[in-house]
Amino acid sequence: MQHTLDQIVSAARAEFAAAAPLPSRAEFEAAKARYVGPNGQLTAQMKKMGTVPKEERPALGKLINQTKVEVQALLDAALARIEAAELRASLGPPIDPTLPSPDLGRGAFHPLTAVREELSRILRKVGFTVADGPEVETEYYCFDALNTPADHPARDTQDTFYLPPAARFANVAKKSPQEQYLLRTHTSSVQIRTMLKGQPPIRIVSPGRVYRRDTTDATHSANFQQLECLYVDKGVTVRDLKALLDYLFESLLGKDTKTRFRPHYFSYTEPSFEVDLSARHLPKVNKEWIEIGGCGMVDPTVFADVGYDPEVWSGYAFGMGIERIAMLLYGIDDIRYFYQNDLRFLSQFA
Amino acid sequence: MKISLNWLKDYIALEASTEEISRAITFLGFEVEAVLQTGLPPLENVVVGHILTREKHPNADKLSVCTVDVGPEHGGVRTIVCGAPNCNAGSRVVAALPGAVLPGDFKIKSSKIRGQVSDGMLCSSAELGLGEDHDGILILSGEPAPPAPGAPANAVLPAGDTVFDVEITPNRPDCQSHLGLARELAAWFKLPLNYPQVTFRGPAEGAPERRDLLASVQVDTPVECPLYSAHVISGVKVGPSPDWLQARLSAVGLRPINNIVDVTNYVLLEYGQPLHAFDAARIAGQQLRIRHAHAGELLTTLDGKARELEPPTLVIADAEKPLAVAGIMGGETSGVSAETTDIVLECAVFKRQSIRRTSRRLGLSSDSSYRYERGVDPHTSIEAAQRAVDLILATAGGAGQEGQGGGAVVGPVYQIGGEAPWQREVVVTHDYICEKLGFDIPSADMRAAFESLELRITREEPTESRGPAWTLAIPSWRQDLDRPIDLVEEVLRVYGTEKIPAGRVVSPGLLAEDAPAVVFNRRATEFLVGHDFQECANYTLRSGKELSTWVSQTAAAELALANPFVADQSHLRPTLILGLLDTLHLNQSRGTAVQRLCEVGRVFVESNGQNYECASAAFIIAEDGARRWLKREPADFYTTKSLVAALAEMAGIDFARQPLQLAAGGELGWQEGHAATAGDLGKQGWAAQLGLLDLALVKSLGIEGQVYGGSFSIVPEKLAAAAQARRRFAPFSLYPTTQRDLALVVPAELPAETVRKQLQKAARAAAGTRFAVEAVSLFDVYRGPGLGEAEKSLAFSLVFRAEDRTLTDEEVNAAFQRLQDELLQGSGYRLRS
User: Fold this and answer.
1) Is A103 close to B26, i.e. CB distance below 8 A?
2) Sheet harboring B456-462: ordered strands across?
3) B5 domain spans which residues (chain B) (predicted)?
């Protein structure tokens, strides 16, 4: 019997050897039945136990059991290999990793959004929060509250878009019924709204679209984006304003960036300055200064108009065009690209 | 305005270089737009040449070989090769001889040109820095006498000048003049300012008063004309101005006309005070009257245009007719001509608003109106008039100049109106200025700055802190200085803004957050970009024609601008989709494959006769036109639904609970039966549209393939409320769920959500308080064989769970049975077997 059992094991070994061809699942099931099935060889040996003398049974039983464990192990290993092969087969042939993905290209921010968010992020770090206001404004918020005289050319219908007197904007409140709606010419109107709504100290940045009645060309666009900062607190100084602009442009353009102030005139700041920029690593501004925005200390008249005591509160304001910054940063020479949305343009800034 | 350096030097001894002066003007607060060189700079070895002969160059078609007499002291006759077509024999020209250096560092030397020696160069005006004319060499005029060969070019050509084109800010009308800017530069360079010496202070004693030339002046409108003065000057000799005067005017771009007109222009540019000279003989009735024009009155202005006037246009009239549009332009016939012998010199102050209104209405502006619009100093007007009288007597006074009789005589002089003497004082302290600046400037520097700007210190008093308090007398031409803060700027300007020291940003923490609309914009953009959309930026202003494809005529009318600039940008955009379709079309037509585009921005929506400015996010999904080796599932309505739902949820709208309406035929822009809407802007403050864009619209735009889209708009105020909502934790059960499926046969046209809600309601009723119905979700929709034509089957999965135990099959089965009984009873639905 020992001999028969040895034969069974070696037959099974031969049949399921790793080197042997892998049987199909059906072949395997048939083979399995041949060994351990009800009519299998091993089962047949076990059935012979009854014919064996009583005293030999324990030894024989042990022997059969060993054989059974061994055969079962071979079967299990074979089954595992068959299952693995089946899984592999279910995946089909291997992929070609060099084929292009048929999925969509990635989305990307518009360069103006990217620049706007970059500037907002830099300013948020030093305590500015981003404020918002309507693009359809009234004469009060856009001009009167900013100390713009009634006969100022900026208010003229030649320069500013107006809505007809009958237009009604349910969610843009007029200060007085005689006022006309217009498209804001600067985001300074947001400063007024913010000051009227809250109490100082205030530290806001207001980015957004503004509108000028102007011929569209390489540097002018009927709508463009501005970004303005307003800081109102006690004891705010010209030096603070300069420090903010140095910080802002060094953060944006690098350590070798310089700003300078030129005295200027704006009706809502006193003193007022234009800001020039130079950055060694940027083409166009590496040799000469270029004008980048306007700024100044909030005029006491503006404070008085929004009900802040000019004796107590002081502040600065700064504004610039986002397109201009983006053009400088990326070396773009025509503002119209921003609003044309040719993907060959947009995708360059992804 | 154009400022001549030579002219400035009349008032200050400027030694600084052009660059330094440019810098000074810039840091005083005026933009230098250009620096121009006019006239001939001093040049050596550049002389008058006389072309004796001209022959064709033997080796070059376009060159000539000339012999040129350049005078005995320069070697007599020289051979010079010239390429210009006009180097004709006999012409007097400018020859640059070897050793000369022309503007632009162009060195002249003797050379061989195509084998022919050329001993110098004949110059064009461009080469001499005199202009842009490159067409040929400069031919010198033979009038009055041909210039002698060998004479230095500087002796025969206008002298050089440097002209700064300066933009003057509107707060500084005093700087619309050479004197004004000289005053600023004197402060900057710390140089004394020399005012012009005015000698005429009134008619000479006993001089004959020619009231026969002008008998009266009457101002009907003293508010609009607070000052009017008229100097009668008889016996003038009209003729060309002296060279110095012509050179001054030419340098700043004015054409010399005659000595009288040139003087008025000169004083305008010197003092900033407009002046006008009438021919006294042309004043009917010998009277001037400043009044409003009568409707329909005609006047031909100096520019040759006949103008019909109407009130309240201010005019200077005689007894019969208007002679001039006040402050803007004189009339063609009443001006000074060659025959004029007696003049009336007008010097007046007109109100800014009146001039501006008229200038706009007539579409007519002039150097004069430009200054009146910005404001002239009424306290220096008479001084300017007297300066002009001086200059007229000097240049057009005839034989007996300087009042020695026989020449021009002044008188009478009329003056109507005039301001009370100017007086304004402002008190400012040293400490206040330092406090506003954030750094210290020594009080001596401040004092010097005030004095250099002619802000006279009338009092200086010590204060309790470091520096003194000054009382400053503000000069009449600085009416922009009214408060201590205004003086901070004056000190800083003269001190130099480049000296503002560096600082650190100090940032106290404030209780504030980004505005809700800003947060929504940012999140929506990030979401869409994260879902592979390319963000776009389209113009806010669209054409009326385009709007009519999207909103009703009434709504389009509400969104029209009162004064559009161009026809295709006449309306506010009611949606971002139209711009995105533009973008899609542009890229398709340029051969760029585009699928997903988005934009986030403001839209303007009409609802029940009211407009709303809304924050909006929108996207479009075009058909994938590209051939691909592996096809992906195309987008459909439900793609847009999931995206719009996400946008709405960012805005705090629980989109899943909002009813969606199938787009009917009236929903412009969207395909009937394949798109949906939700919300109501007027009632709920938000609205959404999603699905397939109108096929005909898309096709009419030239876009290939179908386009899906979605748009979500909300009034910003509603976002504010959403931002405040803080989530609360809800505890959840740790026990397993039990699930049952149910397929219902229902009428085909019934919205699935209606059935789902009924089912959910029935399930909740059946479960009662014993356990929860966690979800009732649809997982299959079937129409076809086995069902009636007008039927569909909806299969739902119901998920149950108890808070405190594992549910038993029995209790779930019982509830499941109850809900079926409940639902099927009376609903007309049946179970799908």
Assistant:
1) no
2) B425-429, B468-473, B456-462
3) 421-502
Fold classification of B738-831 (topology level): Alpha-Beta Plaits (3.30.70)
Question: Does B29 contact A214 at a Cβ distance shorter than 8 Å?
Answer: no
The CATH superfamily label for domain B216-417 reads Phenylalanyl-trna Synthetase, Chain B, domain 3 (3.50.40.10)
Domain B46-157: give its CATH architecture. Answer: Beta Barrel (2.40)
In a 13 Å sphere around the CA of A285, the CA atoms on its Cβ side amount to 26
Residues 214-253 of A with CB under 8 A from B: 214-216, 221-223, 233, 235, 237-240, 242-244, 246-247
Flag whether B205 is marked binding: no
pLDDT of residue A284: 67
A199 near B CB under 8 A? no
Q: What is the mean pLDDT of residues B599-625?
A: 94
The answer to whether B745 touches B820, Cβ cutoff 8 Å, is no
Rounded distance, CA B543 to CA B565, Å? 11
- Interatomic CA distance for residues B296 and B102, integer angstroms: 58
d(C-alpha A175, C-alpha A138), whole Å: 8
Give the separation between CA B23 and CA B727, rounded to whole angstroms: 60
User: Which domains are assigned to chain A?
Assistant: 2-90 (no CATH), 111-349 (3.30.930.10)
B515 lies within 8 A of chain A by CB: yes
Yes or no: say if A199 and A213 are a contact pair by the CB < 8 Å rule: no
How far apart (Å, rounded) are the C-alpha atoms in residues B754 and B767? 20
Task: Quote the distance between the C-alpha of residue B358 and its chain's center.
Answer: 23
A104 touches chain B (CB under 8 A): yes
What is the DSSP track for A195-215? HHHS-S-EEEEEEEEEE----
Whether the CB of A299 is below 8 Å from some CB of chain B: the reply is yes
Write out pLDDT tens, residues B101-132: 888 778 888 888 888 888 889 988 888 877 66
Q: Determine phi and psi for A68, rounding to 5 degrees.
A: -60, -45
Indicate whether A52 pLDDT > 90.
no
User: Phi and psi of A274, rounded to 5°?
Assistant: -100, 145
Contact by Cβ (8 Å): B64, B57: yes
Measure the CA–CA gap between B676 and B670, rounded to whole angstroms: 8
Assess contact for B678 and B687: CB atoms under 8 A.
yes
pLDDT tens, position by position, A212-232: 998 888 888 889 999 999 999
Residues of A in contact with B352 (CB under 8 A): 151
Q: Are B101 and B127 in contact (CB under 8 A)?
A: no
Amino acid identity, residue B437?
L
Tokens of B277: 């000279």
The CATH number of domain B2-39+162-189 is 3.30.56.10: yes
Q: How far apart are CA B82 and CA B91, in angstroms?
A: 13
SS3 B288: strand
Residue B366 to residues B274, B316, B322, B337, B650: CA-CA distances in angstroms? 10, 16, 18, 20, 57
Cα–Cα distance measured from residue A130 to residue A118, given in angstroms and rounded to the nearest whole number: 12
**Sign of dihedral through CA atoms B6, B10, B15, B21?**
negative
Q: Does B445 touch chain A (CB under 8 A)?
A: no
**Is the previous residue joined to A271 through a cis bond, with omega within 30 degrees of 0?**
yes
The answer on whether B489 is annotated among ligand-binding residues is: yes
Which of B436, B608, B620 to mutate to test binding with chain A, by most A CBs within 10 Å of its CB?
B436
Q: Which residue of B has its CA nearest to A201?
A: B510
Mean confidence (pLDDT) of chain B: 91
Among B179, B176, B124, smallest CA distance to B153 is for B124
Please report residues of A whose CB lies closer than 8 A to that of B535.
107-110, 113, 346
**Percent with pLDDT over 70 in chain B:** 98
Distance from CA of A88 to the nearest CA of B (A): 22
Beta bridge partner(s), residue B712: B617, B688
Q: What is the pLDDT of residue B404?
A: 46
